[in-house]
Amino acid sequence: METEKRNLQRTMTSRHITMMALGGAIGAGLFKGSSSAIDMAGPAVILAYLIGGIILLFIMQGLAEMAVANSGARTFRDLVQSILGKYPAYFLDWIYWKMWVLNITAESIVAAIFIQYWLPGYPIWMLALAVSVLVTAVNLLSVKVFAETEYWLALIKITVIIVFIMAGILLLLVTFRDHAAVGFSNLTDNGGFFPNGSKGLITAMLVVIYSYGGTEIIGVTLAETKNPEKVVPKAVRSTLIRIISFYIIPFFIIVSLIPWNEVNGVPESPFVMVFQMIGIPGADHIMNAVVLLAIISSMNSGLYGSSRVLYTQAEDGRIPKIFSRLSKKKVPVYAILMCTSALYIGVLISLFAGSKTFDFLMGSLGYTVLFIWLIIAFAHLKSRKQQNGKPSAYAVKWFPYTTWAAIIALLMILIGIIFTTSVIVTLITLCIYIFITLTYVAKKRRHKI
User: Where in the cell is it found (predicted)?
Assistant: First the structure.
């Protein structure tokens, strides 16, 4: 281990961080959370993901503009602190870290569920442990190895989603052998397009926001990205188009092919169910493998994001310096090991809760993504004042209207979620936020912030 201070390497390119953003966002929220979202909203889940995608577009544009204006920034805190002050930056850093450690824990459980498709005799905790060790090992290698691994994992799942879309369109429109074209009657049958009304749509937004969460990981790659002022806007533009396409179109296919009320409660992903309908021998196994790779890819991104937050906190003296130490490969190994501890805590929880562990964690994660996006949006609103009203080389069109639209939509979703989500999930999340705030107050009194 290198004891002297060294910097992270700028070895990630545009293709790396674009795929990383996709890797973070196309994971358990899409492949496993899709069942919950469809059960809540029915076919209207398509509208929920469209609304979420538009909000995401506005948030990410603001993030890109701030990154270009502050090319020396390393993470979110550097972008936000100079604009909103120390407390919002501190709060953002720690809820972002909390989001990712809970996310990788939830996704290790989901990965185990999909492995059980082949190994039903093995308990969830044992399979989750095996996945956790694998992801830890990849992250302890060099940043370049991690980025390449993430690139190819993300590329595989994107390719298969494209194949899924093509196969789904075929099943919807074409009659062949014993299969009759399904058509689009499932969109309005079984209670109509809004079977659970507006309440179902609002409730599903928690899953939607959770599913899209992870795209903003671009804001954590700034210290290890070549020419971030050029790369980040490009990555934002290309990523958003793909994410919205890879969510809305697949969901349209799923709720058109399968009655919405038959999706939830089935052990396999709706994606696996659709591939089973194709009738190709082993298609369900192939899709299950791809879903598994997708989830591991998302865990990979999550461990990267959470460890870099710890690294910069330690580098600035906010937590013990040991977490800023780098290996010979210039990887923050102690920060990574600290974050992976959450994975093994998740393994212990799954001993008692089993596959329900994912549902318990997903609600709190949805709240966290909401607050992360709100803080980024408010920072973007104020960022132009620091530039005397002059935008940077990359400027958001229709500012500040798009940012205000995102903030208003997020606040409405937050109010709706508070009234429709489990009280226990809300209280646990609130306790975590209060704890983070109290640690800030305590550190401020000791003049450590």
Answer: Cell membrane
